[in-house]
Structure formats: C-alpha cells, structure tokens
Input
Amino acid sequence: MASAPSSSARSAGATGAVHLPDADRDLVKILVAGPFGVGKTTLIDSVSEIRPLHTEEALSEASAEVDDLAGVWEKSTTTVAIDFGRISLPGGVVLYLFGTPGQERFRTLWDDIAYGALGALVLVDSRRLDASFDVLGLVEESGLPYAVAFNAFPDAPRHYGEERLRRALDLEPGTPMVTCDARDAHSSVDALLALVDHLVGRFPAEAR
Ligand SMILES: Nc1nc2c(ncn2[C@@H]2O[C@H](COP(=O)(O)OP(=O)(O)OP(=O)(O)O)[C@@H](O)[C@H]2O)c(=O)[nH]1
Ligand SMILES: [Mg+2]
Output
C-alpha cells in the first residue's frame, strides 16, 4: 500500500502554536468521515492544534441495536453531531476538520456538513469493511475527492493486499489508500497529507 508523505515538515502540532498569523493562508474544509467507532473523534483529537469541539454522548442500550460495537467493546460514547478541529500544514495550508458520521441514516446531516468541503478522509476499519459502504456511497454521490485511511486496530487483518481491499471497497481508480493509527498525531497528519496531495494533484498547476 502506498505510504503517505512524511509529516516531518509539519509547522504546528497538537501541542504547537495555536494562533494563526494574518498572512495569506489557504483555508480548506475537510471531512473526516467513516462508520461508527472507526476513530474519527480520535484522529481529530490527535491532530488538532486547537481544543477540538466534540459532541459526545453516552451510548445507550437503544443504540446497541443500530451501532455494532464489534471490535470497539470499550467504547462508551458516540459522536451525535460533529467533531471539529484545525491543523496548519507547511506552506500556509490550514485544514478545518469536520468529523461526521457516515451511516446512511445521517444523510441530512451529511449534506449540511459536506457543504463547502474540498475533500474527505474516509477512515476504514478493515475488520468490518462492509460498515464503510454507506460512507463511501455518500462521499462518491457528493462528488467529493477522497482518500481512504485504514485505521490500524491491533487485531485488524494484515493479509489483505491493496488490490483486494480496493476491489472489496469498489474504490474509484487513483483513490489514495494509506494506513494510520488515529491515536498518533504524526500518523494521522500523514494520512491527511495523502489527501491534500490528492486534492492538489486534481487541480491544474495554473489554477493553484
Ligand atoms: N487500537 C486502536 N484503537 C483505536 C484507534 N483509533 C480509535 N481507537 C479506539 O476506538 C474507539 C472508537 O474511536 P472513536 O474515535 O470514538 O470513533 P468514532 O469514529 O469517532 O466513533 P463514533 O463517533 O461513535 O462513530 C475508541 O475506544 C478509541 O480509543 C486506533 O488507531 N487503534
Ligand atoms: Mg466520534
């Protein structure tokens, strides 16, 4: 699987500067999307240079019937609306990260949150690929360019080759695929950089 570009040149981190200078900056809205419990909140937490906004609520017994806890047994809360965070990248690009649920039943919320976004980082749990079909459907329907990041849970199968995963998820050709550990800031920034590279590559040089 392609490795993500290095984040070593990152200009600000989870504990870095939080104030943006007034100089010209490219402000980019990015969705961090994925199925229940895939690590969206964790990723935004790990990279955000501002205190992230979360809308976490305790999981209820009723939700157990719709959101499968398989693989994330220790999970006790879920995001009921959005997560929000911000990260400054080298070269003056600032990503505004909007974490959003990817289940089909959140379609209305999705349409509102996706408004104005330039791209999406779709987090996938390779232990339950089918849980990502809804979000991939939503992202493709909305025409958003996206990259797929496999969040490396310890018991995730490692024997799937890239081509097999690409086919299983029915990804559009050229869609970047990387692995990450959402708990790790550098790894998560690398996944975001893979998306940014993909977005930049879609625009002709003269339009940048
Ligand atoms: N081992 C491991 N655990 C992770 C990783 N990322 C997230 N987790 C754990 O997985 C669980 C789910 O993470 P969340 O960040 O809440 O997932 P989410 O996608 O925001 O979940 P919802 O908002 O409920 O859809 C938490 O218990 C995390 O600690 C990872 O990279 N590796
Ligand atoms: Mg969440």
Residues 34, 36-42, 72, 74-75, 78-79, 101, 151-154, 181-183 surround guanosine-5'-triphosphate (ligand 1) (CB under 6 Å). Strands lie at 26-34, 56-58, 77-79, 83-89, 93-101, 119-124, 146-151, 177-180. The longest helix spans residues 185-202.
